[in-house]
Every structure is written in structure tokens, then in C-alpha cells.
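Please go through the protein record below and see whether the fold suits the sequence. Record follows.
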Amino acid sequence: MSRASLEKNPAEVASMFDGIAQRYDLTNDLISLGQDRRWRRATVAAVDATPGERVLDLAAGTGTSSEPFADAGAVVVPSDFSFGMLQVGKSRRGDLPFVAGDATRLPFADAAFDAVTISFGLRNVVDTPAALAEMLRVVRPGGRVVICEFSQPTWAPLRTVYMEYLMRALPPVAAAVTRDKGSYEYLAESIRAWPDQEALGRLMIGAGWERVGYRNLSGGIVALHRAVRP
């Protein structure tokens, strides 16, 4: 299967995720050593959605990240640009209203949601500032955003070991499960090229978000950014 490049052509990236959709959740669990579950729980807690609130879950993939919001009584809309991911998700959770959408041109009205969240998907978007601006547009004034994304470990020795793992171990391990090493080579490279915690915060401020803050998870391997629409 052809892999996407760091130019992040939307059609190429969507096609890549279509190809790994069936075993995507299992692979994530294996390559993160189960930490992805902890990271997702932290994201749900940060969004803190109450029953009846409308939550947009971008890059929702198969809907694994959306399920806790629905189970808590929120009205969650899982959205992704990979039809393969959406099909797998719909087969698992037919009750969720999966919507195909490009994060840089969201098919939703202004101020339609109380909160928007995206987990491990923002770095795959072709235009990060445009996506951050679209998230701002579809959230009501006073609404919030929570971004869970891979970042830069704050301890230098951990950072060195982590980067070596990304480039050397992650693609072969993923290939053993998905039989698609190329896609995970792209994912590893996209993590290495992604802005650090402070840089992403500045991009959020530039898009119009206020009260931007973050906290590190797993020593900075993942960062959880939060902000509010003025």
C-alpha cells in the first residue's frame, strides 16, 4: 500500500487510513503499550461534557474516542475524512451519527457545538491554522477545544529513546499487525515533525483561541491542549 508524505495531501492521507482501518484500534493499543487508553480518558475528562451538550469529535476514526461522550449522555458527532474508518465505526456503533468531513472545511454551522476535540489527528491535517480556525468557528462563544496529540518529551534521555523507538521499532511492530509498514513510517515521521507544546499553543492563539494551556502526559510523549472561544 502506498504511504502518505509529509506534504499531507488529504486524498493520500485519507486513503492511507482507509487501508489500516480494520486493525487501527488494535495496533494503537499495541504500539502505545496500552497508554492510548489512559490518554483518551484524560481527553474525555478535560472536555468534561455534561449530558445534553453537543460535542464534535474530529479525526474520530472508528469512533473509539466518541463512545465515552455518548455513554455519558452528551450528543457527540464523530467526524473523519477517511471513509474506511467511518465504515468500520458505523458497523461497531450504528447509533453514532458519523459524518465525513475535512477539518479545514467543516460541514457544520457556526457555533453549532459546545465543545470540539481531536485526538491524534491534528498533525495529519494539511493546514493546521485553518483547522484550528474552523474549530473556533463551529464552537459557540464560551465553548472549548481539547487537543490530544503526540508532542516532545521534556526529559532529554526519554526524548532520545522515544525518537529511536518511533523510527526503528514502531513501523515493524505495526506491520506485523496491519501488514502495512509504510503507513506507520509516515505516522512516525509526522510525530517527529510536529510542533512542540509551546509552538502548538502559539498556533492556537493565532487562530483566535483564548486561555490556551496544556499539560503533559507520559512525560510529554503526549500533550493535552485546552482553550476557550472568546
